[in-house]
Amino acid sequence: GAGVSQSPSNKVTEKGKDVELRCDPISGHTALYWYRQRLGQGLEFLIYFQGNSAPDKSGLPSDRFSAERTGESVSTLTIQRTQQEDSAVYLCASSLAALRDEQFFGPGTRLTVL
Amino acid sequence: AQSVAQPEDQVNVAEGNPLTVKCTYSVSGNPYLFWYVQYPNRGLQFLLKYITGDNLVKGSYGFEAEFNKSQTSFHLKKPSALVSDSALYFCAVRILGGNNRLAFGKGNQVVVIP
After folding, report:
1. Which of A10, A26, A43 to substitute to test the interface with B, most B CBs within 10 Å?
2. Which of A25, B42, B52, B81 is deepest in the core (most CB within 10 A)?
3. What letter would DSSP give residue A56?
4. What distance in Å separates the CA atoms of residue A83 and residue A62, rounded to the nearest whole number?
5. The predicted structure's pLDDT at residue A93
6. Residue of A10, A37, A102, A105 to mutate, testing the B interface (most B Cβ within 10 Å of its Cβ)
């Protein structure tokens, strides 16, 4: 079956521009997470969606970051007025709802802000 | 705070030798522990998890991990390393309550020398 997909795979933008990253989770997965991975570092939690509940935005680094999810399907992460420190790989993961369930990751979007 | 630590930056091992990647955890209550592998320019792939039951957990690609409650460790092991095992390995623990997200260690680069 299809895994988690993300687009674009690479995005190069100029400082100050807005970018939108897309994630298609595995069908039937109610939980969806966004993480950021800076070069040579671990994963940093950004935001969490679970079904129709209000998202947990506690990991978003600034108000320039926002995310939406349509029901239990596609999610978009938007970064406004990008800065060079936003350069990173943005990973999306989805899972079933139970605590014992592992998260399945997409291939990521590599964002480079010039 | 619930967290995991991966004390080594890089693990070098000769092909055919046993491979061990260390992880210790700090949680209140019973831990839900996971190992992921990341190949270059790829997303994270799930290897194995410990939820409950046997302390020795077997996973993908011949990997296994041993849960040790007294030492609060969850080391990843493989009896005979392959060059293709060279990758970045992440240990993670589920943060219980709230968003139930995964908290990741900083990762270990494994280099298998032919």
Report:
1. A43
2. A25
3. B
4. 11
5. 95
6. A102
Q: Decide if pLDDT at A69 tops 80.
A: yes
Q: Do B102 and A103 touch (CB under 8 A)?
A: yes
Please, which residues have CB within 8 angstroms of residue A109's CB and are 6 or more apart in sequence? A6, A7, A8, A9, A10, A11, A21, A89, A90
Selection from A52, A42, A12 nearest residue B9 by Cα: A42
Amino acid at the residue B104: F
Segments of chain B with pLDDT less than 70: 98
Closest CA to A16 of A112, A84, A66: A84
Number of CB atoms found within 10 A of residue B82's CB: 14
Residue in B closest to A109 by C-alpha: B43
Cis peptide before B40 (omega within 30 of 0): no
List the structure tokens of B113.
Answer: 């020398």
Provide, for chain B, the percentages of residues in helix, strand and coil under a 3-state DSSP scheme, each rounded to the nearest 5: 5, 50, 45
Burial of A75 (0-12, 13-18, 19+ CB in 10 A): buried
| Residue A40: band (very low, low, confident or very high) from pLDDT cuts 50, 70, 90 | confident
B37 interfacial to chain A (CB closer than 8 Å) = no
**Separation of alpha carbons B35 and B25, rounded Å:** 12
